[in-house]
Amino acid sequence: MDQNELKQAVGIKSVDFIQSNSVVGLGTGSTVYYMIEELGKRYQAGDIKNIVAVTTSSRSEKQAKSLGIPTKDLNDVDHIDLTIDGADQIDKNYQGIKGGGAAHLLEKMVATNSTKNIWIVDQSKLANTLGSFPLPLEVIPFGCEKTFADLQKEDLHPEFRLNDDGKRVLTHNKNYVIDLKMGEITHPHLLAEWLDHQVGIVAHGLFLDIVNTIIVGYADGPKVIDNIR
Ligand SMILES: O=C(CO)[C@H](O)[C@H](O)COP(=O)(O)O
């Protein structure tokens, strides 16, 4: 099985957790793509009825709408029952890094407004400690060189994320992404607290104490790790 097949298997499996008559948060990324496709199939077949989706990117919104899945803005629902999203790295304590697709601000807002969160990943995303995957930040363009310099002073090895044309990546909210290539993150809570207090940083990709269930793709099939918190 190649990596895409593992992603597809966990994406399909995760739809078993979506119940009729619920509000579902839809994450972003190549693994989530397979989950939305499967949800679309089961919704169209009538196996899952009366759901509303809250999406975390225009990509996921477009895909959900193309499959006939009704969507609402986060402002227009009073809660989300379950959000299913991908992740870039998950450590042994089930803390995660997200934002490889630059959608972590919306993903964090949707995740923190959800009763339950499921992450779907292939086995390559599991690690003992976070940090070998660069940590994404969403920063506002105003004063971003100052923000960048502060990150350098802290020895966090920041790099602006660039598109193929060499221009800075823009998020949904027209902010920039800075990736921290700092290596091992030994104290994720301390780092998250420091980042939370930097004025120009709108969101960082540390998703701590958020996930309830993880579905991991292995060659012999998806494994569900439940009741994490
Ligand atoms: O956080 C994310 C986007 O901001 C994605 O969930 C994460 O990058 C995983 O993506 P993929 O499933 O394509 O590997």
Automatic annotation (TrEMBL):
Involved pathway(s): Carbohydrate degradation; pentose phosphate pathway; D-ribose 5-phosphate from D-ribulose 5-phosphate (non-oxidative stage): step 1/1
Catalytic residues of the enzyme: 107
GO aspect biological process, one term: pentose-phosphate shunt, non-oxidative branch
One Gene Ontology term of the molecular function aspect: ribose-5-phosphate isomerase activity
Entry annotated with the keyword Isomerase: yes
EC number(s) on file: 5.3.1.6
Reactions accelerated catalytically: aldehydo-D-ribose 5-phosphate = D-ribulose 5-phosphate
Ligand binding (substrate): 28-31, 85-88, 98-101, 125
Keywords: Isomerase
Superkingdom of source: Bacteria
Function: Catalyzes the reversible conversion of ribose-5-phosphate to ribulose 5-phosphate.
Self-association state and partner proteins as the record states: Homodimer.
Family statement drawn from the similarity comment of this UniProt entry: Belongs to the ribose 5-phosphate isomerase family.
Identification of the protein by name: Ribose-5-phosphate isomerase A
